[in-house]
């Protein structure tokens, strides 16, 4: 005799509308940032002219691609209870390096791989300084921020490096596939890889363990230094990739392209539910945070507010969202 599917927890009741509504409400209560996200989006849909259009959604996703890509790597670092403030300057430096390589007729794919390798090496240096010399990551990456900002300004005496390689521009910005612009495809690729690494591999579980309790992770046999170094390498590589997207967008390597990018990235990760104290967080939440920042900035721009007022409102809403998430 088979059991009726009306028992509590049975498949028949799992998809009832009231059950779905309760689960959605529970999610909103656990992640109040999503409630603010929905409220802000609804506000712009109602009051901002021509906001609720497909072209607007595409523009927002293109704009947030840079933040989303770096946020994937930053999520690993912050879950490890560390931070990387150098990603903006690394992105600027990467844009300059790829511009210089292409200017010297280095094949496009070779230039791209060289810049990605350079990003990974920068992350390796950051990780070594943090784990072996026990220098706080805040100080290490703050110093690296200055180092690579200075290098980007010095290498061409503050002049941008024009990029005329159409293959490079199409690879990172101009082309579209199946109706989606290339930056969105890059975002989807990085989100998929980051989600897989963090949620479905031993490495991802070790990242959570290191951030949750470093001492316990060491006693359980986890090579905690290696996990942190790998995480720093990931975020610097994503920063180098974002730098190439910036270069393709502006058709030039520019020493100021990534200025302030680190602030939006860190805000996106924290808004998405990742704890600055480590051990808690996820890739999808970070992407939601990046899209939230993109919608906020684009919506305020469409409403015609001055840049100064935009920054005030944007900062206040981000603080509110982070405070509620922390609560």
TrEMBL record:
Keywords, in A-Z order: Cell membrane, Membrane, Transmembrane, Transmembrane helix
Source superkingdom: Bacteria
Annotated TM spans: 32-53, 59-78, 108-130, 137-155, 175-198, 229-248, 268-301
Keyword Transcription regulation part of the UniProt annotation: no
Pfam families in the record: BPD_transp_2
Membrane topology annotation: Multi-pass membrane protein
GO MF, one example: transmembrane transporter activity
UniProt keyword annotation of Manganese present: no
Subcellular location: Cell membrane
A GO cellular component annotation in the UniProt record: plasma membrane
Record's protein name: ABC transporter permease
